[in-house]
Write a structure and sequence with these properties.
heterodimer, A: alpha+beta, six-stranded mixed β-sheet, 21 strands, B: 276 residues, mainly alpha, 1% strand
Chain lengths: 406, 276
């Protein structure tokens, strides 16, 4: 076991494409760090550089304190699980599992002992004589995992190992991998584009975009305090509601105008974000998580009036699409556009500029598409972002970091 | 009978007809080889060689230069197969694995070479080879055969190599092999069927070639078996019985070679390596 350090790591391809741009990341001993981001964000390239399968253009990689930039993969003592498993098709399951040990000249009886132990743990004991072609997708995935585990390497590198499984199996293997990692306490770097996987598995999650690291944090902190619009829009399913609002000041009270409605910001919200006062008269981006959108019954603050577009029942709760009057965020370059809900419906006349607000409501609320609804938004739960840079307006206990890179 | 069944029967009948058309000349060759002289020329065709005789085979084998020409054919084929396989494998490896300047052009040219009708090139080829003193020599024939066997072999092998996912070698390298070790332990076993298929092709091409050998090799002791077969036709007519016996004998090595290696063409050996 060892820690893995990426220091000012960059990858520039021959055609000038920058895949990874000045990445700094420290993965502690025994830590499970997930690299997550939309496709093409450089997460796989970064992982392959750690494995030694991709040349490093600039920067340093240290494993266990030792710079490994020029070491071939075999001398780095890492194990990798590939997205497509990459099992050796001409070898049996046993030979697949034993291959790494054989290459490292582990004695035969020791090989046998370790392979059989792993096979038992992963439920592959009856399949050691089969070839990969005779296994199901889930079993192949286990063999690929086993091949990494049996080596007892310094670190695991996993490149989207679950993306080829069907949804049910994926949830099951997700827990299994997390459990194995916990039991073995092996330093793990896990790459995925699925933010749910990232949130559920990682001790810490590193969000990347266009080769640049956006934020590294615990899943909970990432969710509660995204440092910029991209992280805010990428993390969370359904994603955070984001739209524009204007900061106005009247009689020393700061409020935030959404459409025609003014949401007064309590003094503690303002005190927490001293910079907010500087935005007076200007637009900011505000965000609110779907579960923080409430039906207004019993709320004595300002209410937003909206129209229900769609009700999706999830069984335990319902997901309600509500059209409200507000200015949509026009800086699509600052957010993860793939995660955004579709724009307002056609034929909207009374609301000139409208955004779709997603709300997670109690399942007992009777809501009908087309009906009117009043929603309450607690200003304490709002997230504020600068519209120019996309960076979160700093709160006193959360210092600001990198801006969104376009 | 439903129309579905009917069409199935129809297709099967068509397949059978094609089979008969293809197999008949072979059958006729073998059966004629065993016929006695009068039966070969009888007005009503004799389907079965009864009474059978081995005299035609004896005649063919004891002709002048037979064993010498067998030896020539074997030399040409062995050299062409080994040389083209070795060269083509390395070339295909480079084309499949590395990005280098002119790679695409190289691939296109390789195929373009195959498009040129060889018969049109015989005279220029002859002149060129005679300038470098390669006419009437087996080496000249070998070089010429390579020109059309090699491009095809490169092309086929490249396909086989591309069929092996890159991740397999990478996994082996992470598991502790060198790049060369990954090549020997992972890639080579997986492209073996491709090597076999390509060698069959090269063998058949080189063994059966007639026109180039005929033009380039003038002295009878230097000729190959296909040219030797033509010697059965003289000004006084064709010795059909011995010719057919000779042709049957000539076909044997190709069939033998195929039967010997065809078990190894286990296509789809990479199944299960990756999801797909």
């Amino acid at each position: 076991m060892a820690d893995v350090q990426l220091v000012h790591l960059s990858k520039v391809y021959d055609n000038g494409v920058v895949a990874v741009n000045d990445l700094n990341l420290e993965i502690g001993e025994g830590e499970f760090v997930v690299l997550v981001g939309p496709s093409g964000c450089g997460k796989t390239t970064a992982l392959r550089m750690v494995a030694g399968l991709e040349e490093i253009s600039d920067g340093e990689i240290r494993i266990g304190g030792k710079v490994v930039n020029d070491l071939p993969p075999r001398e780095r003592d890492i194990a990798m699980v590939f997205q497509n498993y990459a099992l050796y098709p001409h070898k049996t399951v046993y030979e697949n599992l034993a291959f790494g040990l054989r290459m490292r000249k582990v004695p035969k009886d020791e090989q046998k002992r370790r392979v059989e132990e792993i096979a038992r743990v992963l439920g592959l004991a009856d399949m050691l004589k089969r070839r990969p072609a005779q296994l199901s997708g889930g079993q192949r995935q286990r063999v690929a995992m086993g091949r990494a585990i049996v080596r007892e390497p310094k670190a695991f590198l996993m490149d989207e190992p679950l993306s080829n499984l069907d949804a049910k199996l994926r949830v099951q293997m997700r827990a299994e991998i997390a459990r194995i990692q916990q039991a073995l306490r092996v330093t793990t770097v896990y790459v995925t584009h699925d933010q749910v996987e990232a949130m559920t598995m990682g001790h810490r999650v590193a969000v990347m975009r266009d080769g640049v690291l956006q934020q590294v944090d615990t899943p909970q902190h990432l969710y509660d305090a995204p440092m910029n619009l991209f992280v805010a829009s990428f993390v969370g399913s359904p994603p955070m509601n984001l739209f524009e609002a204007t900061i106005v000041q009247e009689n020393g009270r700061i409020s935030c105008r959404v459409g025609q409605v003014e949401l007064e910001l309590p003094s503690d919200v303002v005190a927490q974000r001293p910079a907010l006062a500087e935005y007076e008269g200007r637009s900011v981006a505000i965000g609110i998580r779907p579960e923080d959108v409430r039906e207004a019954a019993g709320w004595d603050g300002a209410r937003l009036r909206g129209r229900i577009l769609l009700v999706e029942s999830l069984g335990s709760e319902q997901l309600v699409h509500i059209e409200i009057a507000a200015t949509p965020l026009e800086r699509a370059d600052l957010i993860d556009t793939a995660a955004q809900p579709p724009g307002p419906s056609l034929g909207v006349e009374d609301l000139e500029r409208a955004v779709t607000l997603l709300g997670r409501f109690d399942r007992h609320l009777l809501l009908v598409p087309g009906g009117a609804v009043e929603v309450a938004i607690d200003p304490r739960l709002l997230h504020f972002f600068d519209l120019e840079t996309g960076v979160a307006i700093p709160t006193v206990d959360v210092p600001v970091a990198a801006e969104v890179v376009r | 009978m439903s129309s579905r069944q009917l069409s199935k029967v129809g297709w099967n009948a068509l397949g059978l007809a094609v089979f008969v058309v293809m197999i008949f000349p072979v059958y006729w060759m073998v059966s004629t080889a065993f016929k006695t002289g009068p039966n070969i020329f009888s007005y009503s065709p004799k389907w079965l060689p009864i009474p059978a005789t081995l005299a035609n085979f004896g005649d063919a084998i004891h002709r002048q230069y037979f064993w010498q020409n067998v030896r020539n054919s074997l030399i040409v084929v062995c050299v062409v197969v080994t040389l083209s396989l070795a060269l083509a494998f390395l070339a295909a490896l480079a084309l499949a694995k590395f990005r280098f300047y002119g790679r695409k052009a190289f691939i296109v040219i390789t195929i373009a070479v195959l498009m040129v009708p060889l018969n049109a090139l015989i005279i220029p080829l002859y002149i060129t080879l005679s300038r470098v003193h390669q006419v009437n020599k087996l080496s000249g024939v070998i070089i010429t055969y390579m020109t059309f066997v090699l491009p095809f072999a490169i092309w086929t092998l490249r396909g086989f190599i591309l069929g092996v996912p890159r991740e397999l070698e990478e996994a082996a390298m992470v598991d502790g092999t060198t790049r060369f070790g990954a090549f020997v332990r992972i890639l080579l076993p997986l492209v073996a069927p491709g090597l076999v298929a390509t060698s069959i092709f090269a063998f058949i091409q080189a063994w059966n070639e007639y026109i180039i050998a005929y033009v380039l090799l003038s002295s009878p002791e230097k000729q190959t078996l296909t040219v030797w077969l033509a010697s059965f036709t003289t000004n006084r007519g064709t010795a059909w019985g011995p010719l057919m016996a000779g042709a049957t004998l000539t076909a044997v090595p190709v069939v033998m070679f195929f039967l010997l290696v065809q078990r190894r063409i286990a296509f789809g050996l990479t199944a299960g390596a990756v999801r797909g």
